[in-house]
Amino acid sequence: MDMDADQIVDALKGHFNVDSDIELARALKIDKRTVSAWRSRKRVPQRFIGMLTGQSSHPHAVGPVYWHNQEKAAFCLALFRYARAYTSEFNEKGFNEALKVLDHANDDFWALMRRAQSDIGKLEGGNSTSAALSMLIHDDIENSAAINEQSHRIMRENRPSITWSDGTTTDAKGRPLSSS
């Protein structure tokens, strides 16, 4: 991979859908000072570079029993959003069609988890983790259409193309492709 440390850190931020070095550290389950150390040393360990190339496992390979409160809250929020989004997937497409989407359910969930971590992290500043979670779930319920659309967008962006029984194919962003 021909990128310097700053470019790799930026690529990891994009990969985990986070905006700051601190949020990236949370997503990677490392100390927040580690990312700045990579920048100053101009070197990122191979196991993290491997996450960009698919050669290294996801940090969530660590069992939930070892998660901090922030990760547990993000998991709850992601599960809440995931359940709501899949309910509408099943209602919109019907059971047989929705089963095709379930092939990508794992990727969908972890994409929503990364977003939930980011959302919890942004709200957690002056609040407890449980208060941040409560506020986000309340906001999700109050703005359910917008949050549901956001969840669908996040999931679509992380899915490969899907061919439906009527012959239509959509790309990862949900745009129709030619039916061949």
UniProtKB/TrEMBL annotation:
Give residue spans, biased composition: Basic and acidic residues. 150-159
- Listed Polar residues bias regions: 160-180
Residue span of region Disordered: 150-180
Q: What is a GO molecular function of this protein?
A: DNA binding
What top-level branch of life does the organism fall under?
Bacteria
Q: What is this protein called?
A: Bacteriophage CI repressor
Which species is the source of this protein?
Answer: Meridianimarinicoccus aquatilis
Q: What is the lineage of its organism?
A: Bacteria, Pseudomonadati, Pseudomonadota, Alphaproteobacteria, Rhodobacterales
